[in-house]
Amino acid sequence: MKDAFLHAWNGYVKCAWGQDELHPIACTAQNTFALGLTILDSLSTLHIMGLTEEFQRARDWVAEKLNVRPNINVSVFETTIRCLGGLLSAYDLSKDRVFLDKARLLGDALLAAFDANNVPSPFVNLQTGYRSSAGWHAGSIVLAEVGTLQVEFLTLAYHTGEAKYAAPAMKALDGILGRSYNVPQGLYPNFLTSDGSWNGANNNVAMGALGDSFYEYLLKVWLLTGKKYNRLRDAYLDMVRAVHGSMKQRAGDLVYISELYGSNPTHKMDHLACFSGGMFALGSVSGAHQNADERRDALQLGADVAKTCMEMYHITKTKLPGEAVMFSNGRMQVGGGALYSLQRPETAETLMYLYRMTGEEQYRMYGGEIIDAILQHSKVANGFSGLRDVNAVPPPLDDFQQSFLLAETFKYLYLLFDSSDVVPLEQVVFNTEAHPVSVFENPDAPVLQTVMKAFL
Ligand code: DMJ
């Protein structure tokens, strides 16, 4: 895996150094953040893989070249999970203050996204603080975009001792958990109003796009803060029960997590929802469940999701998954508009957790299949490209190397086969972009008492 990662990294260094992302066929760059996105998103993987020279080069770029206030509107969610998360994880792994200093400056710029009601706008201009959103937000905010800031901002607050970094994101989460919605209890609508009332703006529910990492962070913030702030654990457990009761469906011998419209299943599952297998497994072994039956069912659900997600690979000609599948008459099919593949990490993530937790070789065999398919169909001269059609051989390529290929997909596949326990799962929390940060040593730190009070 290290060789594959280095191939992706070296292509980026050659064709796009200091820019955001790589077009690996054209050998050119794309900039949507102007933050050297691939460098920040790769830091923790470079460190974990022991790529010392490459890590040092990236570190020097951060120290000398990174400007965290470019005059550009960036996604608050993406910048937080990829850039802020990447810097904080690099600090945690290396203890080099350069990363924390830059994270603090980036955190200051991102705080401008929150309005007086603690509502984060979808986009913010990192230089001017101007808040904006995309047309598709239609004036609303997205559940996953509001609820996937807390691991990063809490970590920044913890290391700087400054509550101001975490207070808005935690108040936003408090607002969401304090409401009841027109969807099964324990679940939340994908869109919320942006007026500070935290009302639902629709009644769609998803473990994939728009919902996913909101649910993930209920568990991970509870773990990060020392398993002490139990309102988060309880919200997580309510969600798991609701998944069993309302979202879990069967097709032949496959179990899948359907999206919902109100209480009605739509029988669609995104590849993005495949992360949830790892989450259910982590919840099971980390002590979230008090009840032994629920703990066992959660681990089983994680294993079921892993099997279904591997089927997403098996049903295509390239053996790489499309973006989403539909289920009808007991069968899985790749959705018509979802034949493309963006190098997504979620199944690899779930395999890594399940292997670590069960030791079952099957998960490594699945991982080997994924690696073979990536090397066969996605590898090009200067990196790895996404696929436009997973059912064509050879597949048409999109000439884009996602930064999360280096941050997540290759890291999780590496960790699946690594036996050195380089990142002990009991001691760290992976943010949703696979950047590990250490569980807080002192869950009673004064800075946490202020921002976590509502979650006791
Ligand atoms: C990543 O940026 C994160 O994992 C996020 O939570 C969901 N989407 C991508 C990868 O697919």
Task: Describe this protein's structure.
The protein is globular. The chain is 48% helix and 12% strand. The protein is mostly helical and 456 residues long. The protein starts with a helix and ends with a helix. Strand 4 and strand 5 (131-132) form a beta hairpin. It has helices at 2-16, 37-48, 52-64, 76-94, 97-111, 143-146, 150-160, 167-177, 212-224, 230-247, 275-285, 292-314, 346-358, 361-377, 403-417, 446-452, and strands spanning 21-23, 28-30, 73-75, 123-125, 131-132, 141-142, 191-192, 204-205, 248-251, 254-257, 260-261, 264-265, 268-270, 324-328, 331-334, 379-380, 383-384, 428-430, 436-438. A 3-stranded antiparallel β-sheet has the order 3-4-5. It has a 3-stranded antiparallel β-sheet with strand order 8-11-12, with no helix packed on it. The chain has a 3-stranded antiparallel β-sheet with strand order 13-14-15, with no helix packed on it. The model has no long low-confidence stretch (mean pLDDT 97). The protein is built from 16 helices and 19 strands. 1-deoxymannojirimycin is lined by residues 81, 212-213, 272, 344-345, 404, 408, 432-433. Residues 81, 212-213, 272, 344-345, 404, 408, 432-433 line the site of 1-deoxymannojirimycin.
What's the short version?
The chain is mainly alpha-helical and 456 residues long. The chain has 16 helices and 19 strands. The chain is globular, with a radius of gyration of 20 Å.
Measured as a percent range, the helix fraction is 40-55%
Number of strands: 19
- Give, in spatial order, the strands making up the sheet with the most strands: 3-4-5
Reported for the largest beta sheet, the result is: 3 strands, antiparallel
- How would you classify the quaternary structure? single chain
Small-molecule binders here are:
1-deoxymannojirimycin
Uncertain runs with pLDDT below 50, 5 residues or more? none
